Amino acid sequence: MTKRCYIAGAGDFCDDMLPEKDDFIIAADGGFAALEKHGITPDLVVGDFDSLGYEPAHPNILQSPREKDDTDMMLAVKQGLERGFKAFTINGGLGGRHDQTLANIQILAYLAENGARGTLIGIDECITAVKDGEIEIAPNTAINGIISVISHSDKSEGITLKGLKYTLDNATLSCSYPMGISNEFIGSNAKISVKSGTLIVIYPKQAQVAAKE
Q: Which of 190, 182, 183, 184 is nearest to 210 (CA)?
């Protein structure tokens, strides 16, 4: 099985974050055009094609009705989960409509609740979710940059932040009060853990999630 599910969406697409050789690639509606521009053929195409404007010529299409409960991105994510993937990279899931951006952040939480890790790739930043666990992020040596930690759950408890300018030890954050905004890297790896709840973590695109999470 390939190591990662790479999903291309119809939002702002980062041309410097293309799929890797062993990725399973899904185009979600307008993400097909973004991949096509780079000569990349996805393994699967899903959506109602309202963003793309036409049904693409592809041997593996899962077309949905326009009136449906799931967004095209959620359909793509569910296809990846059904195939057993635990690591998801979503390019083209930020920018554009705010409702779609918020929906895609909710999808990160959905992935975390289902034992997977998703990352939204933006032009300058990445967003991921951590549920009842820990993540370690290594800053680029050329920059320090800003990192923000937000509670997606009503309450996220037992939060510990290490390796950042502002640290926390067994703290609680809520979804209605922005306490974790604009923290700073200080040159070392940032360690973020939560005992109970789901955190949304926003960090510079140049930073990297450490291999050990």
A: 190
